[in-house]
């Protein structure tokens, strides 16, 4: 499987790189002549830093030598930064857009909503383009 992944050009570069590293580290390769090369030699052959070889080897050992899990990208359980726009914020923006516009205005615009969202204490400051995405996501049209 690893040889096929390395030879075909339809896989992400990071997966191909990890597959090449695992192939170089494989002690049971029937085509290998002699002992496995050192990590620094493998790093030179594959074209990566020595630290990359160590990390791939540690991940491979830590995952119970599961080859597919080693070469696949790990997804984060949650994003590094919590989103500003939650369901409650969306609801507040839509509720604000459903009200009558302030005196002197015929209708709500994205920039006008942006100003009023900035004045609200319980809603984080949002850009007019973010407000537009929220409204578009919920199929809300400003008329």
Describe the structure.
- This protein has helices at residues 2-7, 13-25, 39-46, 50-62, 67-71, 87-98, 110-119, 128-137.
- With 143 residues, the chain is mainly α.
- Helix 2 (13-25) packs antiparallel against helix 3 (39-46) and helix 7 packs across helix 8.
Task: List its traits.
143 residues, 8 helices, 0% strand
SSE layout and pairing:
Layout: H1 2-7, H2 13-25, H3 39-46, H4 50-62, H5 67-71, H6 87-98, H7 110-119, H8 128-137
Helix pairs in contact: 2-3, 3-4, 7-8
* Average of the residue pLDDT scores: 88
Count of alpha and pi helical runs: 8
- Order of SSEs: HHHHHHHH
Number of strands: 0
Shape: rod-shaped
Q: Main beta sheet: strand number and arrangement?
A: none
Low-confidence stretches: none
Distance between the termini: 57 Å
Strand residues, percent: under 5%
Rg, Cα atoms, Å: 27 Å
What is the structure about, briefly put?
This protein is mostly helical and 143 residues long.
């Amino acid at each position: 499987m690893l040889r096929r992944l390395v030879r075909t050009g339809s896989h992400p570069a990071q997966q191909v790189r990890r597959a090449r590293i695992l192939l170089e580290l494989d002690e049971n390769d029937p085509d290998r002549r002699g002992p496995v090369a050192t990590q620094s030699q493998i790093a030179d052959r594959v074209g990566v830093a020595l630290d990359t070889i160590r990390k791939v080897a540690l991940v491979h050992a830590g995952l119970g030598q599961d080859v597919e899990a080693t070469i696949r990208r790990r997804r984060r359980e949650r994003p590094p930064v919590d989103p500003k726009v939650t369901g409650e914020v969306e609801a507040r923006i839509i509720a604000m857009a459903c009200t009558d516009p302030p005196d002197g205005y015929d209708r709500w615009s994205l920039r006008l909503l942006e100003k009023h969202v900035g004045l609200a204490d319980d809603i984080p400051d949002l850009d007019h383009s973010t407000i537009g995405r929220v409204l578009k996501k919920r199929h809300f049209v400003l008329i």
